[in-house]
Here is the input.
Amino acid sequence: MKQFCLIIFFISTLLVPAAGKAADTLRLADAVVLALENNFSISLAENNLKIAETGNSLGNAGMLPVLGLTGSRSLAINNSKQIYYDGRTREGKDAKTNNQSAGLQLNWTFFDGFNMFIQKDKLNELEKLSALQLRSVIEGTVAAVVEVYYNIAAQQALANVYREALRNSAERRLFAKARADVGSGSELAVLQATVDMNADSANYLRQLAVVENLKSDLNLLLCRNLTEPFEVDTDIPLKYDLRQEELWVRAQQENPDLQRARNAVGVATLTVKELRSQQLPRLSLNSGYNFSKSKSDVGLMTSNRNYGFTVGVSLAYNIFDGFTTRQQIAQARIREESAQTEAEQLQLQLQANLQQTYNDYVTNLRLVKFETESLDLARQNFAVAEEKYRLGSLTDVELRETQVKLMEAENRLLTSKFRCKTAETELCRIAGLLSVENGMQ
Here is the structure.
């Protein structure tokens, strides 16, 4: 009897949360906000976008002139002896020579075969690619948060199922023990109830470990302490109005991966134009202001000073480079064709993924409805079986079978809900519905 009381005490402490250990409920919207603020992958993608935005300028495109300032000053001390043709000799000991110069140079290539405009378009495309990369990372992170969050919800709900099963098994053991004490039951029924209770205890403990591991995964996505305690809302809301045709139209317009592939085609096209521009002449304007002054103790002049403006135009034209440019253009065209092929392949793959995921979504929606009805029947069946067991018209094995069927029905419903939610989230990701501007629903 003492051992039995210890078992009951263990079960009660397991099932009833200790005071002061309750954790706050983390809502999905709050989890998404934390991920967007803290996730390392998003931070890196944001930095790449900032780099692309900073680099997208007229100067990097080669449209602006280059202005430079130079200056120098030197002092030389020499012993000098100069002999002229007429026989004169001039010597200088520790003769000093001072040189000073300064210059302001302006270089501006005002025609380079339109390459500067091509480069500006290319910088715009690269900035768009970085923005799309950031959006892709954001949507992928949001999808991962949603999936892990609702996986926790499903597994926590399943843990509650096992906890309820454990409670029922504990009550059944108490009932079997009471019947055995008054002589209307057998010790075998008590042993069988104990075995089932231990099995339910093991299931519950294993399920708690699953929940804790998933919480650690979510904390990792949120980039916070992996042991940060929290609870989740075990309700799994489902959308019933998703339509495949509408999602595909949206995906062709908004999917960031598909847009990146199309932008890659644009970049490849601009690369071809960039190489073609090298076959045209380059015109540059050169201008400057120069000042120089020198003083010397010996020599023809004791002082020399020059200053003034310079201006000129230069022309550069590559007449023959061993067909190198032509070969580079041919290779760039092949890369352009490859980029176009990759974009078409990705579009077809996205369409296939959308169709398959939508099939999973519809199937699991039907299963949710079917399993909900099955669960209602299983609960009614267990309630009847439990009453019959108390009246002595049902065996322990039959009651256990009914209880197992109830747990299986609850597990199937939770699995169908989670799979439906996972498919729903993937559909929204493919269609570009998980971006920040579209909100998180």
About this structure: Residues 1-21, 436-441 have pLDDT under 50 and may be disordered. The radius of gyration is 40 Å. The longest strand covers residues 89-111.
